[in-house]
Design brief:
Two copies of one chain form a homodimer. By secondary structure, chain A is α+β, with helices and mostly antiparallel strands. Chain A has helices at 6-19, 27-41, 67-72, 77-91, 110-118, 139-142, 167-180, 194-200, 205-222, 226-234, 334-340, 354-359; strands at residues 2-4, 44-48, 57-58, 61-65, 122-126, 150-153, 159-163, 184-188, 192-193, 202-203, 237-252, 255-264, 272-278, 280-286, 289-293, 297-302, 319-325. The first copy, chain A, is globular and about 60 Å long.
């Protein structure tokens, strides 16, 4: 039986930060909550997606809200349990397993805490393989799995149960409730059976996060390059080495929007990279050429330490390495790109796989300009 | 057995408009919905509060949202039924009766439609005896009756069930959901037993609305003064006869705010009345003297026809009569005034009963100035 103990939380948190691609909130806060829960209730059993019984009832949990609020007020484990119970009371069935919605950011660790408190296993998997800002942007949406019935709870003990016509309605209604819950709501949603989960969920993402974290820590200890460790684990590509020379931020429609300009250093001297972010880093353009777009992962890390840098934390003058890595292949389907492709976020760009862009093999796409 | 048929709806609608004190939405729209339902399902049985069994389950229904939206898109009877069913599915108990939250405006008539469709009786009563803009402003709040579990539904078939710590939380969360439901949500809330309802609800308010409407129509037919008919039914007072000479409107925090100035005509020649409204008319000041405040009823009607004029519909140059009438005595308690007194709406004025103000018997109150 595989378990998660306190010892693994730090590695998972580092990996979750990298997989957050700039968003997803601070996994360090999730680590604190998971550590407290494991100390109180003991280690958490981890179950492979392939081993989950067909008739298991997987109830994923997540915190919704502004990352800036989470920094000041930890998501409440009590409210998370309340949300799970409100959902069970609606459906008449109790969760046999829990799971992460997204492996990027704080959301990777909250299900571990919930599993400890509820005394159920956590699935080694998640619904994105990264982070995205909205509820309907998960892979199970592509498989017709509904977000609702969806339960929300807040620190005052209020609960709200939504049943929505589709996952976009669920996102909009839940977001409105979240704001009134002080921009800090705990949720139980996307209940699914083991049989439903297998084709629709990313497998072994907790393991990937943990390996990423372990590789970064090992590289730091051995004074080797932590960026190599990340690129290796993610089958990724170094897109740029530079320093931040311009930042334009605005908060709009609940998104932390950022346009960053990086000027190249060392091998990239003389080149320029622009990154466009909406919570997550979504588009990277080198000089006039698109080098990576959502849903592929665009990861910005400190060039020295490999520490991931969030959209909020990116600072003028920072020396960073930008890594591109392929997303889960299901997101590259027509249905997937309709939900999380560049056009879904308002960019007039067609998706091209980062590995082809990196090798110069991608077809010309609008906005890509001459090469 | 007392029933409501199509024939009574017009009188009830006129009366509901008068009792709306400027707010509550257009009862004419409620009349259309109730008429359609009665034509389809037959007359609706009306039950006196005194005859409701102690263990009856009364489930009131109401539409929440902007009156301007209701004008363009009728509240959906289907969504109202869906809300009632979502609540029943949450609580495991089906409504035996329904009731109005407020007798002012459109809300007076929707429960009649719901009763027809659900095949249950409607209580001859409501929870305000007038209209107020927020959910917690009902008399049952003073008796500790919770608004939640509270179910909401929209025209797309989305449902939301709230369970809230208190009625103010319920108001805030429901309001946020309502906005995302296109500012047009149907709700089932404040479930209560017959025994709970008796001390906490205003009795015979459907009858009052119907009598008001009948009296106004009779006066019009007989060419007598419809304002006399209203004043008589409500044990009210003519506060002012004037014409509108200034209007300042703004929409703020979901309220239609209005400051109106009336210059006196006939017996009130030379005097001036200011009316301050937030959806409902809340304060009337004649020259420098307060003559009526919330929770007492301030009713503005066309001087010729007795037709009530809403806050949105008040127009420059209109010749109107302003009537003051006592509210339900329970609102005049300390607990009641804390929820719906002038200070609850941001006015630095203490409540004085309209009948004492009218007779010059009220004590001096801040803001009242010299007499």
């Amino acid at each position: 039986m595989r378990c998660i103990t306190e010892d693994q939380l730090e590695d998972i948190a580092i990996g979750a930060g990298i997989l957050g691609t700039g968003g997803g909130g601070d996994p360090g806060l999730g680590m604190l909550i998971a550590r407290t829960a494991i100390r109180q209730y003991g280690p958490v059993q981890v179950v492979e997606l392939s081993d989950v019984p067909d008739d298991a009832l997987i109830v994923p949990v997540v915190a919704m809200g502004a990352p800036t609020v989470a920094n000041e007020k930890l998501p409440s484990l009590e409210a998370m349990t309340l949300a799970v119970k409100a959902l069970a009371s609606r459906t008449g069935a109790s969760a046999t397993h829990t799971m992460a919605i997204e492996i990027g950011g704080i959301a990777a660790l909250l299900p571990i805490a919930a599993a400890a408190e509820l005394g159920i296993p956590v699935i080694d998997g998640d619904m994105m393989g990264r982070a995205f800002p909205e509820l309907q942007m998960v892979l199970p949406s592509l498989f017709g799995i509904p977000a609702s019935p969806l339960a929300m709870a807040d620190e005052w003990g209020n609960t709200v149960v939504l049943e929505c016509r589709d996952n976009r309605h669920a996102e909009r209604l839940a977001r409105a409730v979240c704001v009134e819950m002080g921009s800090s709501a705990l949720m139980a949603l996307y209940s699914m059976s083991g049989a439903q989960a297998r084709p629709a969920v990313v497998s072994q993402s907790l393991l990937l996060a943990e390996r990423l974290g372990a590789a970064v820590r090992a590289a730091r200890a051995a004074h080797t390059d932590p960026v190599d460790a990340i690129v290796g684990q993610l089958r990724g590509h170094r897109l740029f080495l530079g320093k931040v020379t311009d930042l334009v931020r605005r908060t709009e429609g609940g998104f932390a929007r950022l346009e960053a300009r990086l000027d190249g250093v060392a091998a990239d001297e003389g080149a320029m990279l622009r990154i466009s972010s909406q919570n997550e880093h979504l588009v990277a353009v080198r000089d006039e050429r698109v080098v990576a777009t959502t849903p592929d992962l665009i990861i910005v890390v400190d060039s020295q330490t490999g520490e991931p840098i969030t959209t909020e934390a990116l600072r003028y003058g920072a020396r960073v390495t930008v890594i591109g890595a392929p997303c889960d292949p299901r997101y590259r389907s027509t249905a997937g790109l309709a939900v999380v492709g560049p056009r879904a976020f308002g960019y007039a760009i067609d998706f091209q796989p980062v590995e082809l862009l990196a090798l110069g093999l991608a077809g010309d796409a609008p906005g890509q300009g001459p090469r």
